[in-house]
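Need a sequence for this fold. Nothing fancy.
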């Protein structure tokens, strides 16, 4: 039992780690798109965010897994099932990016526009303006909401068990059915998720203290 839960925990951590890294990167791109000069890019980014926020996470995971399987099978001419880990991570990345983009956009809007204009007047390129002016100020502004989003992602990783990925929730489900003792297995899963979210909260609290804006310090 302990071995299976440890193995499931490693899968859960892997799904979370990959999804949060890819989702953050995609979220930054989408957030930049919402403030782009091109109306087409702005509309595309806004449509992406609106779609993700309006569709349940579980449905996106099912679409990624079964839709991906159907698409690849149609192209290959034979049945090929997509990798459960890849489809799960892909779906959670898409979801995380949609919500992260809104957080980043809100943080960017809190930065005075004059700072970006001053950077352009100094001859900084668009990438230099992002790297040296906008991102350093955006991080502390976005971190509180970003922390909550990451905590939600830890819990949302349980949804990938629906496509057969052997994470903590899947191990608990199989153990509960096999041993006919659902309460101990589900309580063990709850304890594991609680421990993961607690560790994440402590880590993000340290980050928040580290990157807190000077004017917010008391």
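Here you go.
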């Amino acid at each position: 039992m302990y071995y299976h839960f440890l193995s499931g925990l490693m899968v859960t951590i892997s799904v979370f780690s990959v999804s949060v890294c890819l989702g953050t990167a995609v979220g930054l791109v989408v957030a930049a798109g919402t403030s782009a000069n091109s109306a087409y890019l702005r509309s595309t980014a806004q449509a992406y965010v609106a779609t993700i926020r309006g569709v349940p996470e579980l449905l996106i995971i099912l679409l990624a897994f079964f839709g991906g399987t159907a698409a690849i099978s149609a192209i290959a001419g034979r049945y090929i099932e997509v990798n459960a880990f890849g489809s799960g991570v892909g779906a959670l990345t898409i979801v995380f990016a949609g919500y992260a983009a809104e957080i980043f956009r809100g943080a960017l809007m809190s930065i005075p526009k004059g700072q970006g204009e001053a950077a352009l007047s100094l001859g900084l390129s668009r990438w230099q303006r992002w790297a040296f002016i906008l991102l350093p100020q955006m991080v502390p502004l976005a971190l509180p909401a970003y922390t909550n989003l990451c905590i939600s992602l830890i819990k949302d990783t349980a949804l990938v068990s629906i496509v057969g990925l052997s994470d903590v929730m899947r191990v608990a489900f199989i153990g509960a059915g096999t041993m006919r003792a659902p309460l101990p297995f589900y309580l063990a899963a709850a304890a594991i998720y609680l421990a993961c979210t607690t560790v994440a909260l402590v880590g993000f609290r340290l980050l928040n203290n580290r990157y807190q804006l000077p004017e917010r310090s008391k």
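For context: The mean pLDDT is 89.
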